[in-house]
Amino acid sequence: MAAQTGLPLYVLGRDADPHSEKGVDCPGELPPASDPELVERARKAKEALGDRLFVLGHHYQRDEVIQFADVTGDSFKLAQQAAARPGAEFIVFCGVHFMAESADILTTDAQKVVLPDLAAGCSMADMATFDQVEECWEALEDAGLADQVIPVTYMNSSADIKAFCGRNGGAVCTSSNARRALDWAFEQGRKVLFLPDQHLGRNTAVLEMGMSLDDCVVWNPHRPDGGLSREQLERARMILWRGHCSVHGRFTAESVDDVRERIPGVNVLVHPECRHEVVLKADHVGSTEHIIKTLEAAPAGSSWAIGTELNLVKRLAQTFPDKNISFLDRTVCYCSTMNRIDLPHLVWALESLVLGDVVNQITVDADTTHWAKVALDRMLALP
Ligand code: 13P
Ligand code: SF4
User: Fold this and answer.
1) Whose CA is nearest to atom 1 of ligand 2?
2) What domains can you pick out in the chain, each with its CATH number?
3) Using a 6 Å cutoff on CB, does residue 206 contact ligand 2?
4) How many CB atoms lie under 10 A from the CB of residue 3?
5) Is residue 92's pLDDT more than 80?
6) What is each CA distance from 185 to 150, 192, 361, in whole angstroms?
7) Considering only CA atoms, which of 85, 68, 88 is closest in space to residue 77?
8) Confidence of residue 356 (pLDDT cuts 50, 70, 90)
């Protein structure tokens, strides 16, 4: 690879990367900004590819990468954007694996989706495997409950989990439309199996839809029958999968108390992937796009503590210097898998495309694509 592109890189995550771990670590400050020469190489490669290329960037990406995105957004907006560009031959996805899979599902067969580093996975998506979910469904069938249950999966899940939902009458949702997706699901059935983020499911059900915590049970895929009795399953309205985001799961109720003490009058704004007790203590809750819009509209001089990924919070603090924007927790914490996409990997992917070599292409097989698209289309059709 290095010989082909002239780029002296050790490409992490190519095929297998035994020295890394999916999920999150907190290495403190990021390494210094990438070599300015690489910035020029990325610019040139992009220019050479012209309209053949469309670069999507999730809000949690590093600044050095986001500067090359044609569109930035949360996972919902990026899925819409991927579907809206049938003319682009290459979609380079600066985000994580499940997002690139969704882009492949929503684009035409002629379009190629590239993820610059294959180690850019998501620990939450990995918490629900197809076999585990099938096992859960079989248990619900054995209990005579499956025909009442509509599976809804958060966008942050693998393509085969989305396909599972499509096949079984369910849908995908994102953090911007979870409420609407759940309203739709409860029109189709009496219970919902919500995958894989228990926090988004619980926060939406309890705080937005007026359910009680007792209406929710947690299915633990590592215990027989999910660790739940038949009576618990019969009583539940929301069966929450035992998954969570390693980044948003770090914020605690104490982080909120602490920031309120440190910054009088602060507004606490958190992502719904945060734990229930954190969201309960916050002033506002919303998806990444919602967080950005709220800060855009906030008056100058107002103070905000934000509970979401640090790349985005730092960028927001730079974008709105007239507002006092800080990270909710004292500990510096990035999403380490989002951070896998750095400028060297982006340059490598783009220069390879210029040379006619499609590296790190993400492809989803035809059957999975069909059923995952059914679930994604149900989401895209929500009012
Ligand atoms: P959204 O992009 O839907 O806000 O989700 C946040 C996230 O964790 C993406 O990985
Ligand atoms: Fe996954 Fe959380 Fe990282 Fe998003 S922020 S990619 S949900 S680990």
Assistant:
1) 122
2) 36-121+339-365 (3.40.50.10800), 125-244 (3.40.50.10800), 247-334 (3.40.50.10800)
3) no
4) 6
5) yes
6) 6, 7, 33
7) 85
8) very high
